[in-house]
Every structure is written in structure tokens, then in C-alpha cells.
Amino acid sequence: MRLIIIQKILGLLLALFSLTLAPPVLISFFTNDGALQAFTIALGITLSLGLVLWLPVRNKKQELRLRDGFLVVVLFWTVLGLSGAIPFTLAEHPNMSFTDAFFESLSGLTTTGATVIVGIDNLPTSILYYRQQLQWLGGMGIIVLAVAILPMLGIGGMQLYRAETPGPMKDNKLTPRITETAKTLWFIYLGLTISCCLAFWLNGMTFFDAICHSFATVAIGGFSTHDASIGYFDNLNIEIIAIFFMLISGINYSIHFLAWRWKSIKPYIFDSEFIAYISFMVVTALIIVSYLVFHHIYENADQAVREGIFHVVSIGTTTGFVTTNFQAWPSFLPLLLLLLSFSGGCAGSTGGGVKVIRILLLFKQGMREIKRLIHPNAIFPIKLGNKAISDQVIDSVWGFFAAYIAVFTIMLLILMATGMDQVTAFSAVAACINNLGPGLGDVSAHYGDISDTAKWVLSIAMLLGRLEIFTLLVLLSPVFWRS
Fold first, then answer.
1. Integer Cα distance of 410 and 429 in angstroms
2. pTM of the model
3. How far from the centroid of its chain's Cα atoms is residue 253's Cα?
4. Which of 426, 423, 400, 398 is nearest to 411 (CA)?
5. For 224-241, how does the pLDDT look when each residue is reduced to its tens digit (9 = 90+)?
């Protein structure tokens, strides 16, 4: 373990993160919203800590190994969650305990969107902006941003990229150089954010709300500047824009890159994961809209279609925006939406969940096993499109799924041991490990009323979901620490 280079990277990344506190400082200064001191102190603490770590080893040069990369990623997200909690802790409004502040900070950075705050509309402007900015930074992963800078300091970044990138096939790069890959991802991400912001603004949002909601939409985060979320605006055009950008952001960014480079939609049409992703959304939307219409849940069919499609896309992509209390829908509808979030977005997107490609591969593997029962000596390769998938990838998918179920079950039992009912406990773990946000039962509106123990457990669930379980669990393996 090369602790010096880990210290150097961690210090540098903390120093860079401290710079992101400058916009909230400026907003608080010009709006005089009372949070200036909190953000100024937070900036000073984070920058000082980063410099203390970086300066003593700034001239040290070592190659970063894969094992070091995993440790850096986990340490950075943990320390970043702690640093991000400082403004919430110090601000007079909202008056938050450290547990609540850390939960809110990590929820933003992991793009979960679960909140402990009640009365969001009355928060200081700088706090409102800061919550949205946390999601935007976490959406693509601030590690990937740093990968574009670290090579200039003599530090290789492929190990960090592998540890941070979601999905089972992490060795695919958009460009030959990892630096260019990271830059490409961020240019696409920034372009989508700007486009979303302008669309919101031109269709009725204030410029401030447009910026904040574009951050949450493209990051698939779900935080809002209003307690009523997107429902506050009661604007069909805004909901359609949100649906479009949530769907786009849930697609593998490498597909966006290929479509942009080739000036063609063929990369989407011939991508098996994209087809499955859209199919999941369409089938679920048909089921939910049909139920809402035929059982006359709303006064007119148009409203049922509007509400049904919006929430299918919002929950299915693990964004978590709402326009109505979907948790109160009758029968199986709320559970169906929650189950849809387990598939989540595509690998290589800002979405959470297990990822569509894993669900697709698990299905194909299941079908292969059925064929093997009939033809035990035959060889049936698993393919995505015309490309055969290696057994190593299939094994990793099964390993991930087994670990996911085990972790989910353990956390569910812990929450129930704290006195939480089954529905609330199940939905809370699902919403946090899938980086979704809204749950059912006592966490349908917010997480402020659950115990501190439950909040820490769910914080770990959010981190596990964001880092796709193995990145964190690998640190618990004795093999990892052997020299």
C-alpha cells in the first residue's frame, strides 16, 4: 500500500473540492441569507485540511496501483461526505445535528436525494444551491473530474477510473487516453446540464430554479428547491423536459459519445442495454397508466397518463422527483415503482440501481441454464448484440448480485431491529442502496423522523450503492491488505 501517494491524492482532491464552496459563499454574500459564515468556515477547513495532507508530499512521485485506487475512492467519498456536512452543521438554518448533516451531504453526493429537511422552501438561498451542487458534482463522480488533472502531476488515473465507473465492464474507454476519457465524459455532462437549464428557464422556471433543477435532473439526483419537488411548478412542459433529460441521463454516456462523434442514432438502436432500458420503462408505464385510467384514480385520463409516465421515468431512472403523492396510489403500484428502481439506469450513466445491463445478463444467464438442462453438452454463448460476453463478466455479475442481496438483507434486518416496520425498512434500504431517495411508509416524505442509527445504516447503503458494493467491500477483505 503506497500511503504517501494516497495522502497526496486525497489532499489534492480535498483542496479542489473546497473551491466548489466558493459559489455558495458568493450567493450568501449577495443575498445576505445568513449562511455566509458557515460556508466561509467550511471552505477554510476543507482547504486547510487538503493542503495539510498535500503539501508535505507534493514532490513525491509514485505510480498508483489498482489496490490504491480503491482505497482512494472510498476514502475520498467518505471524507467528502464529512466535509460536505460542515456547512449544514454550522448554518443556523436549517439547524441540523451532525448525523443529519452527514446524511444530507452524502445523500447529495451519492445522488440519492433522500432528505431529512422539512421546510425546504424556507431554506437560505445558498443552502438551496449547495444541496443541488452536491448532486451535480456527485453525478458523474468528482473522482473522474480529478482524473483529468492528476496526470499533469505525474499520477496515473486509470486505477481511479476503474474504481469509480459504474457497471460490470470497466475497461472500456471512449478514447485511448484516460485523461481524454474523463474530459469527454464531463463535456457531455456539462452540455446536457446547460441544455436542461435553458429548457427549464424558457418554460417558466426562474433562472435560479432552472440551474438547481438541471443539476438534479442530469445528475439523476432528485433534490429540489421546493418541498413539492417538480409538482411545485404544475407545468406540463417542465415535466416533459424533466422526463426527456432523466431518460437521456440514464443512458450509458459512452453511447452518447459515439452518437455525437458519428452524428448518428445507430449507437442507440444497436445497443442491447439501451433497448432493454427503454423497454422496462415502456412496459411499466403501460401497466401503471392502464391501472390509473381503468380504476379512475384521476378525474380524467390525461392526468393519469401525465402522472403515470412522469413517475415511471423518475423512479425508474432513480431520480426521485415527484409531482404527486404516488405512495398513496392503490394496490401494487407504489411497490412496482420501487421494484423498477432496482434495475435503475444503464451502466456508465449517472443512474443508480443494479444497472440494466446486469439485469439483462442475469436473464440471459438464466435462459442459458434452462437450455443446458435440455442439452447438457452444448455450448451456448451469452451475447449482447453480436458480441459474446466472457464468463469472467458473467461471474462478476453473479458475484455482485449475491453481494447485493446479502448486504440488502443485513441492512433490512438492522433497520427492523431499530423498531422500523417492514414496509418502511424495505423501502428505505431499497431507496438508499439504489440511490433513489423517496421510499414508502414513514420515509415517503422525508427521513427526518427515523432514528440516528437508521440514518447511519442508510448512509452506508447510499455509499455502497454509489460505489457499487464491491469497491467498498473489497476493503474488508484480508487479501486486500496483504503486501
1. 10
2. 0.91
3. 14
4. 426
5. 999 999 999 999 999 999
